[in-house]
Write a sequence for this structure.
């Protein structure tokens, strides 16, 4: 499966400009790279202008859901749609939407863990539904959003559910860039799955984002890493056969003693 990741500079508070940017990127990357699956970063419609969500967030996933569905179908690609600022009833969520090649919505997830350091609790509501895997091109996959990366229980749950690829969508600040890298490597190694991440670049309201979107294999090898500063496209073809090989060679899942820690 060939991936293309968009390491994007998000214009905070301007969803229309961000949608135009994503559309242009998808059209270009399809022509130049012919990916099977593309990945976008966290909150790419609104950015972290959280105080403006009443005017900028989607309503029940629209218009982003129709926008991404149409792009997926037109270009025959899977779109792991990062996440968006999204209003449901009178609450705001950080919501991920995943579309298959037919433009069908195959997964929807609201970020569970809200970030105290970014004051998310003041503006957002945490998701109330458990994570589960979804399937794209016959491959089981999972997705978590940014701060969720610090809670290994989520990734382990998805690995136990059979995920071979874990997506991490983020606007991770440069101030904690070492954590961004180390935690992704740890999740890939301990769960023996591919980690494919998309982080933002640029600065909003004094917070600089770390970039360094990554593709890490289940052995912990960094196959590709984006720039720390610049927007760009990161591509790689995943050899999924190495998941079962590594799980055979280092049989962590067979060695678990869940009754000792669950
Ligand atoms: N957008 C985020 O979830 C940022 C997470 C973060 O800043 C951290 O975990 O550190």
């Amino acid at each position: 499966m060939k991936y293309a990741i968009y390491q994007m500079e998000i214009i905070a508070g301007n969803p229309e400009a961000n949608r135009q940017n994503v559309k242009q990127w998808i059209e270009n990357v399809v022509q130049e790279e012919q990916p099977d699956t593309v990945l976008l970063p966290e909150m790419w419609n609104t950015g972290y202008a959280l105080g403006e969500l009443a005017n900028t967030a989607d309503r029940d996933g629209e218009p982003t859901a129709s926008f991404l569905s149409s792009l997926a179908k037109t270009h025959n690609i899977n779109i792991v749609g990062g996440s968006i600022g999204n209003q449901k009833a009178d609450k705001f969520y950080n919501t991920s939407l995943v579309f298959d090649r037919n433009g069908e919505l195959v997964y929807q997830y609201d970020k569970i863990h809200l970030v105290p350091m970014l004051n998310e609790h003041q503006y957002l509501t945490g998701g109330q539904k458990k994570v589960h895997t979804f399937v794209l091109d016959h491959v089981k996959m999972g997705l978590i959003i940014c701060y969720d990366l610090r809670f290994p229980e989520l990734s382990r749950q998805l690995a136990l559910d059979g995920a071979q690829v874990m997506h991490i969508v983020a606007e991770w600040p440069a101030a904690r860039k070492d954590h961004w890298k180390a935690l992704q490597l740890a999740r890939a190694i301990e769960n023996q799955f591919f980690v494919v991440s998309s982080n933002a670049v640029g600065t909003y309201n004094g917070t600089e984002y770390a970039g360094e979107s990554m593709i890490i294999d289940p052995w912990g090898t960094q196959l590709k890493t984006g720039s720390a500063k610049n927007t760009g496209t990161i591509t790689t073809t995943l050899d999924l056969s190495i998941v079962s090989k590594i799980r055979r060679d280092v049989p962590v899942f067979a060695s678990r003693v869940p009754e000792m820690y669950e």
Q: What stands out?
A: The chain is about 30% helix and 30% strand. The two ends are 34 Å apart (CA to CA). The chain has one domain: 2-260.
